[in-house]
Write a structure and sequence with these properties.
The chain is mainly α. It has helices spanning about 1-5, 15-25, 55-65, 70-85.
Length: about 80
């Protein structure tokens, strides 16, 4: 899709990670900058144990912290779920 946009076929909605280089080089320009699409939901799945191994707990906590700015409502939900796990 990005290649099609570069050749002028139309516009594309793509994750920044895939379009970053084309934007840096000027092959693509960002349009509708303030109209970002919502991200896909992220789910962590692991056994429901009170005593998680430290590696699983570390990854879980990292992901929760990394996504904390997404939405105030979601953040509260993530934090409360995290406290229960």
């Amino acid at each position: 899709m990005i290649d099609a946009a570069i050749t002028g076929i139309g516009i594309v909605q793509a994750p920044e990670i895939y379009a970053r280089q084309a934007v840096r080089t000027g092959a693509l320009v960002q349009v509708l900058a303030g109209q970002d699409a919502p991200g896909a939901p992220v789910q962590l799945v692991y056994p429901p144990r009170r005593q998680l191994i430290w590696r699983v707990r570390a990854v879980r906590d990292f992901v929760i912290d990394a996504l904390a700015g997404e939405s105030a409502l979601d953040q509260g939900m993530r934090r409360s779920q995290s406290a229960l796990l």
